[in-house]
Amino acid sequence: MSAGKIIHRYFHQLIHGCGNNQCSNIYCQSSSLFKYDKTILNDRNEVAAEAIRLSLEHVPLCVDENIIKEYEEKMEINKLTENNLQELINHCKKIDNWNLLNKSIEDIFSNRLNLLNSFLKEDFSNNISINKEFSSTASATPKSFFIHDPRITLDNDEITLDIDVMKRSIKLLNSYEDQISLTIHKSLNLLLNTLQYELKSKQYELETDANFFNLFIIIFELSYLSDPFFLFDITRLFYSILTNLSIDAQAKFVRILSKYTKNLNDYISHVQQYITLHTLRWCNHVQIESDNDELLSSEPGMKEGVSVLRLLFYANLLSSQRDSLEVIETERKNYEKMENELVKRRQRYNDDASDNDEQHENERKSPSSESTSEPSTPSATTTTTKRKSINEVDEIESPYENLLQIKLGLKPNEYRHGQHPFDIFVNEYANEKIDIRKEYLNFIQQPTSSIQFSFIFYPFFLSTINKIALLNIESKARMYLQRRSIFVHNIFSSIRLNPFFKIHVRRNHLIEDALISLEYQGIEHPDELKKQFFVEFEGEQGHDEGGLSKEFFQLITEQIFSPEYGMFMTNEETRCLWFNPSAAEDLDREYTLIGMLLGLAIYNSIILDIKFPPVLYRKLMGKIGTFEDLETSHPTIYRSLKSLLTFNEENEGMTIEDAFSLTFQVAIADAMGSRLLFDLKENGEIIPVTNVNREEFVRLYSDLLLNKSIEKQFDPFFHGFLLVTHDSSLRKLFRPDEIELLVAGSQVLDFNQLASAAAYDGGYTKDSPTIKNFWSILMTFTDEQKRKFLRFTTGSDRAPIGGLARLKLIISRNGPDADRLPTAHTCFNALLLPDYSSIEKLQEKLSIAIDNAAGFGLR
């Protein structure tokens, strides 16, 4: 045996041992008498030097070379099968020596060809062996080492790997982690570095190799990927190779996962562990280097982890049920119709603006012209910069779609849910560390193509809190651009423009005044809606720093949703609002106003005190209501239709006609309780619902309830919403359920969260007697009283996304004991609380204040 091999065996003995738990060789790591401090193993150079010394001294070697050699001759070690792996493990157990298993693993997992040929399906295995044998005519030649099979292409999702066999085999290997972990690490390191080098010159040949994707599926199955020993080198290298494949290859990998992997949970857990540990490492760097202002997205390895998680997210979608093509096509047509309406409206504005520009130019040239326009008048606003056509690219390139998503034909909102909940892809720990403001600034300061990595490219990974923060930052950035543009305009122009969207309303004519303001300054001039929103109440003092706007939205929603207007009705079972199908014909303006208010509330971060069923928010995202939505919007009808669909005539001993007595004519109740008759098909009253057509009946009835019967009401409502939100990232960033939280907040009120995050001012601390009394009283409040308190102090009775802790309530000492009531500044979430002399007095004054708060005078 050569000196090099002998040294290698000593090195192996020091690092791995012989595998015999009863070994007595003091120079073997398996021995309990091992003479070395095991910290020597941390320095491989020191181990190598010691191996050379031992070879010169001819100290004992444990490994019985003859036993290994004899067994190796019986084993086929150029690939793994389930049988030979089990046989190999049984043999190692029998002789109580794991060196042969480690050697075989090294041979397989360090060599691309050997690993790619392992765990093959029988039909592909035969085909490939023929290619090897007749290499003069087959695609796999000794020079290329690539296997080609006409059944395997980048455009399909076929693979040569026997997934079930591979999973059982890798599960078996994973159970011997203590014996083979180091060998797996060393072998994968060699394999992946070699593969990375090969991909630089032979990427196409490798990606079109019939067995190529087997490698990624096999390695993904290894539990070692989430081991800290692997995470920062092997796992990162593996993820880097995977996410640098061509778009076609990545798309195929996603399709393979979605088709063959019944449970993605383990893969997702591995990647989330990887991201969490890289986040921890970044935190340590930031703490050590106090002047380090690097973003979490700049942490080496983070891009690879989140990019792989995106592959799993797409596989999660593809493995679930997509909306039907019929539904998708209907939604496309509906949205196209709405966009055309927006284009027409904006074109009318552009035409008017051009005429006004010409008129102002003539007036400017005239010696008698004067600049007397008021900032808030329609004549002033008509000179704002022309808005872009909705078909033009926005100033900031959208980062929310990518080539892989387009290649896969994926639109996340076409999937109600995935194989796993969407929240499983959100790493909460990493999201807590993301500085979304800096991420956004970094994003807009450079072209999208030059950004190496940003969390903004991965909305599925962002928590709802961070998405909202991102939307708010984007809104504020647009508002700032509006103000800056107007400021420059005002310097060089005699026509003064208002940098804010300000409306002036009377409390007793709230809806009328709001309609006029929004129509004149909003609908005809959509850019106005992108300005910061301010409200003035006639006859009242107070500068709107947020509180007045909150009160305006609260008051107007209370009025316009009231039964007196007849625009909406309340479902008694769900207590949710829904459109009145028999509302008056002349309410288009009012419905448009409500849609605009929803959009303005989102744009200005105001939570509304309204409750719609989830299907409304799906419709606001361009979706249509279907049978599944009835479960939360019309529960009783849903249960009835469900029983119709599951009715078994044979088991029940009667037909559907006899059991249900339904026809294709149905009745819908309106806000007044009247029953409105609709034919789902022509002559519906004479067409019975049968076992054959019941699915059609359910589909048409659901469509009537959620779409067609309220089309005249919803279309202007949706139009108003789009007037405000069309150019924002709302549809790209959020899911419908997140839009609901964005508009209406959370119904869950945890006052312990509110208390834990509260701040104190003016001499109060958390230990002040009045503060202790205050929280003692609040914790005993009923749910209704708690909502009144929140409305009194914050302008809304809902919790923002993330809970009440995010409100940051400020309690200030408002002088010593007095008879005056507590007051609040809703724009600052601030409560001004006198230092009352007793808990009874505090409870009395606080109750009076929250029960009678209305108007800025008490705010």
UniProtKB/TrEMBL annotation:
Which portions of the chain have biased composition (kind: Basic and acidic residues)? 339-367
Q: What is its EC number?
A: 2.3.2.26
Query: Which keywords are on file for this protein?
Result: Transferase, Ubl conjugation pathway
Q: Which reaction does it catalyse?
A: S-ubiquitinyl-[E2 ubiquitin-conjugating enzyme]-L-cysteine + [acceptor protein]-L-lysine = [E2 ubiquitin-conjugating enzyme]-L-cysteine + N(6)-ubiquitinyl-[acceptor protein]-L-lysine
Keyword Ribonucleoprotein belongs to the record: no
**Might you name a Gene Ontology BP term for this protein?**
protein polyubiquitination
Q: Which InterPro entries match?
A: AZUL, AZUL_sf, E3A/B/C-like, HECT_dom, Hect_E3_ubiquitin_ligase
Pfam families tied to this protein: AZUL, HECT
Active site residues per record: 827
Where along the chain is composition biased (Low complexity)?
Answer: 368-384
Every copy of the HECT domain together lies at: 525-859
Query: GO: which molecular function terms?
Result: ubiquitin protein ligase activity
Q: Give me the ranges of the annotated region Disordered.
A: 339-392
Name of the protein: HECT-type E3 ubiquitin transferase
